[in-house]
Predict the 3D structure of the following.
Amino acid sequence: MKKKLSHINNKGKATMVDVSEKKETLRIAEAFAEVKVSKEVFDTIKKNEISKGDVLTVAKLAGIQAAKKTSELIPLCHNIFISKVDIELKLNKKNISVEIKSFAKTNSVTGIEMEALTAVSVAALTVYDMCKALDKKIIIREIKLLSKTRGKSGDFSRR
C-alpha cells in the first residue's frame, strides 16, 4: 500500500491537516543535532570565554523558545500546547563538537516531533551565532528525530 503525504489535498495542493476528529494522547519526541567546531572554539566554549556569553545556556534557552514558536515558523504545523521542553547540550571532546538533544512533551491531538526538531535546530544555530567571530567553518550536522510516541504513524525510535 502506497503511503500518502498528509499535507497534500486531493488536488495535489499543500494543506493543513484536519485534526479535529483525533483524540488527545500523551506524545513525546526527542531530537538531536551536532555542531562541529574547531579545537579553538571548543576550548573557548569549555572555558566559557566566548565574548557573547555562556554559549551552552543561551543555546538551551533559544532552543526552548524556538520549540514554543514552531507553528509560527513551519507553515502547516499546528499550534499545540507544550507541557515540557528541555534541551541538553554536551561538549563532546572526542568529536570536538557540541551535541544537542531535545525532549518535548504534549497531551495533544497531533505530534510534537517538529517542536523537538526546531528546538535542536535553533539551539545549533545559536551556537554558530555565538561562536562565528572565532571561526566561520563551524558545521551543523546530524539534525534528526531520535524518537516519538503515539499518533497515527505509531511509535518511532532510531535507537
Q: What stands out?
A: The chain is about 30% helix and 30% strand.
